[in-house]
Amino acid sequence: MGATANVTRFAPSPTGLLHLGHAHAALTAWRAARETGGRFLLRIEDIDPTRCRPDFTDAIRQDLAWLGLDWDGPVRVQSRHLTDYRAVLDALAARGLLYPCFCTRSDIAREIAASAAAPHGPDGPLYPGTCRRLSADQRATRMAAGEPHALRIDMAAALAAVPAPLTFREHASPRRCDPARFGDAVLARKDIPASYHLCVTHDDALQGVTLVTRGVDLLPATDLHRLLQALMGWPAPDYAHHALLTDATGRRLAKRDRAATLRDLREAGMSPAEVLRLAGG
Length: 281
Ligand code: GLU
Description:
Structural class: alpha/beta
CATH superfamily of the largest domain: Glutamyl-tRNA Synthetase, Domain 3
Distance between the termini: 26 Å
Largest sheet: 3 strands, parallel
Number of strands: 12
Strand content: 15-25%
Order of helices and strands: EHEHEHEHEEHEHEEEHEHEHH
CATH architecture of the largest domain: Alpha-Beta Complex
Number of helices: 10
Strand order of the largest sheet: 1-2-3
CATH class of the largest domain: Alpha Beta
Low-confidence stretches: none
Helix content: 25-40%
Bound molecules: glutamic acid
Number of domains: 2
C-alpha cells in the first residue's frame, strides 16, 4: 500500500526575493506532495501592505517555475480574502472569545514596566491584559469614538472552550500544545483586519492541507494554530517542521542579511539543478 497522498503548501510572504532557505522550504513541501502522488499548493501571505509588494509575488512565481517546482490549482493570495478572515473573527467574537484592545505599544511597555512579573512568550512579552478588564460600557464608548483597536483572543476563555490537552502530530509523533504561553495573542491587528496566526490556520483548513512543512522557527506558533483549529472545528493537519538552512558561519539565511537570492544565483549562471542541490536536494 502506498503512502497517503499529502496535500502540502509553500506559503511565502512577498517581502523580498526568495533565497536558498525558501528554496529548501518549497522543495521540502513539493517533494512531500509529489512523492506521494498528492498536491502541492502555493499561497501568498501578503496581508501586510506595508511589507509586501506585488513585484515580489511575481518573482516568487518566476523563481519556483524556473526551479521546476510546479504547483497545483490556483494560487491563493491572502489579501484578496480579508472577508473570510473577518468571518472567523466574527464567529469567535460572538462566542465571547475576543476583545478589542486599544493599547498602543508604549501603553503596553509602561504597564509591563510597572508590573512585578513580565512573562515572555514566543512572540515577546505577554500582553498584561489591560483591555480585557474594561467594562462593556467602556468598550462600547471607545469603539463608538472610533478609537483604533486590535482584537485579542481571551486565552483563558479560549482554553476553557476546548478539550485539554491539545496535541498535534509533529513528524508523526504526538506533541502536546501549550497555547497559554502566547497569552492574549493578537488575531486582528490595528492596521490590518487579520493576523498571520489567523490567516495561516484558516487557509490550511480551507485548502485541505494535510501536511504542513515549514521552518522550525514556526514550531512554537503551531500551539496557537492548534488552539484556533480546535475552537473553529477545523481538522488538524500533520506537521513536519524542518531545520533552517544556515550560511558557512552557521547563521540562518535571512533577507535582512542579503543572503544570495535565487535570482542572484540564476544570473550568476547556476542551473536549477545546482540550486536545488544547494537547497537540500
Ligand atoms: N508566511 C510565512 C513566512 O513567510 C510562513 C507561513 C507558514 O509556512 O506557516 O514566514
